[in-house]
Amino acid sequence: MGLVNAVETIVSNLYEEFQKSYEIKCGCQHCKEDIMALVLNRIPPKYTSSEKGQLYIKTLYLNPQLQSDVMRELMRAALVVEHNQNHVVHEGV
Questions:
Q1: Are 62 and 68 contacting, i.e. CB atoms less than 8 angstroms apart?
Q2: Measured distance CA(93)–CA(49) in Å, rounded
Q3: pLDDT tens digit sequence for 27-44
Q4: What residues form DSSP beta bridges with 11?
Q5: Is the pTM of this model over 0.85?
Q6: What Pfam families does the annotation carry (predicted)?
């Protein structure tokens, strides 16, 4: 399995939920990765080297407060990316 930051999976899953309730100006893969990178840089990582450890960390994130923290960071990151897109938007191509 190797070394894994289990928070990445959690942020990815919550990003999908976040997208349903927040209209992101650009939904391209680049902007998604920028948003997720900003969130992952602000949330403490939880590394594990086993599936059992990964499951334990995921149970920690069932806590509503932790989910709220991740969603708050997703909102903040989406606003940052929205106002500082790191790519050229092509309209009418």
A1: no
A2: 45
A3: 888 999 999 999 999 999
A4: none
A5: no
A6: ComFB
